[in-house]
Amino acid sequence: MSDQDYSNTEQQIPKKPRSFTSGSGFKIALLIVLILLMLIPISMIRSLVYERSRRANEAESSIMEAWGSQFVLYGPVIRIPVVEQEEFRTVNRALWITPKDMNINANFSAERKRRGIFSVALFSGDVSLAGTFTFERVAGEIKQNQTIYPDQAEIIIGLANQKGIRRIIRADYNGSDLFFMPGNRNFSFNNSIDNGINALIPFDMNGINTFDIQIAVQGGKSIQMLPIGETTQARIISDWSSPSFQGGFLPTAYTLSESGFNANWEISYLSRSIPLFWFTNDRGDYDGRLNLRGELFGVDFYKPLDHYALNERAVKYAILFLVIPFITLFFLEIFSRKTIHPAQYLLSALANVIFYLLLLSISEHLSFSIAYLISAIALVCMMTLYARSLVETWARSAYMGLVMALLYLILYLTLNAEDWALLIGSVLAFFICAVVMYLTRKLDWSSLNLKQK
Question: Does the keyword Lipoprotein apply (predicted)?
Fold first, then answer.
């Protein structure tokens, strides 16, 4: 055979086809499958965050129940027995009168009490209630067949939880001392006000009745009061530095500082739906239904950085901590000409999922910021060292450390800037897409072979 024939025969030998598994398309599809599989442990972490948060809420409720729960004060009001003579029977009723003017002054000291690793904001202090009652607005509404017994009148203060009262510091009515007993005497407006205190008083139907009551109270999480006076002025002072004003009325003026807050309310009866007086039957039934809770005002002892809420928000971004490290490893594989096995991608994904487990467990014992710093440093170091073992150069593995550090920094800023979270996330997604497009602008995907050379 001549040299020419040999050459022609050599040219006719077909080239060995490139393996499908060595192509970039197969690798990318496999990575997508791995990311989808990692959503399973992510959902498990999310469930764990929810379960720990539920346990914390149960511990908080247990502590508050023993201390006095949320402090809610309704009143004071005056209850006067009324006998109504109908044609064939006698009906016992009650006349309820609200204060003409009422001044509330409350001063509280807040503290955190712990049960195990869980804590809750509790407070103790005193509430002063001062004002006047008159009969002038009611006099024209009394019917001829109704008989009023002012010598059997009672002054009543409704409470959400009887444990909230520690003691009566001062109780003065028209210059005389009051002796309070437990019970709210059906003061409820058909609402569920199961607790309260009451005291007998001699009500003066022709003059001004004054009251001045100071109560030592305690509770947890929030303080709420009912603006039941024809004119209600209230002032709440506390050393808690992060209040959240709640209810149907916000303060007309307030000051905030690191040492606490000072808030003032001024509320007219024209801005609420509670009548100045009303009649009930002997069971306390009122012809109508009012949502007293919708009329409350007050303050929550807000916990500004609840680490369970921050952990829950952090897990929502977990998919980025799978996609971006995968993209980074994929480019390191391309540019370093080193083959990275899918199992190694899987290990890197598991490491990033473990970050959230570390963050949750450490933040239950330390502040969230310190827990985040410890977890982030641990994961950045681990991913950098792992990338070094894969691409065998510190220069390229440093890219992995830089990417992870920037990613954790952006996540931390996002978690602490809730109002800007959507904007930060959108810009980050755009930036990632732009970087990937730039790095792959000249890459020949069809001829890309990921087998090690």
Answer: no
Dump the DSSP string for 247-270: ES---SEEEEETTEEEEEEEEEGG
**Residue 452 included in any domain:** no
Residues 283 and 364 occupy one common structural domain: no
**Max CA distance (Å), the chain:** 138
For 117-135, b/e burial (b = at least 16 CB within 10 A) is ebbbbbbbbbbbbbbbbbb
Say which residue the tokens 């007293």 belong to: 292
Which residues of the chain fall below pLDDT 50?
1, 6-7, 9-10, 13, 15-16, 20, 452-453
Same domain, 360 and 440: yes
- The pTM for the full model equals 0.72
Residue corresponding to tokens 């050393």:
239
Which residue reads 């506390």 in tokens?
Answer: 238
Torsion angle defined by CA atoms of residues 48, 53, 55 and 57, in that order, rounded to the nearest 10 degrees: -170
Residue 81: CB atoms within 10 A of its CB come to 17
Q: Which two tokens stand for residue 347?
A: 């290990």
For the stretch 58-71, pLDDT in tens is 888 888 777 877 88
How far apart, in Å, are the Cα atoms of 244 and each of 19, 203, 299, 415, 420? 64, 39, 6, 20, 20
pLDDT for residue 170:
92
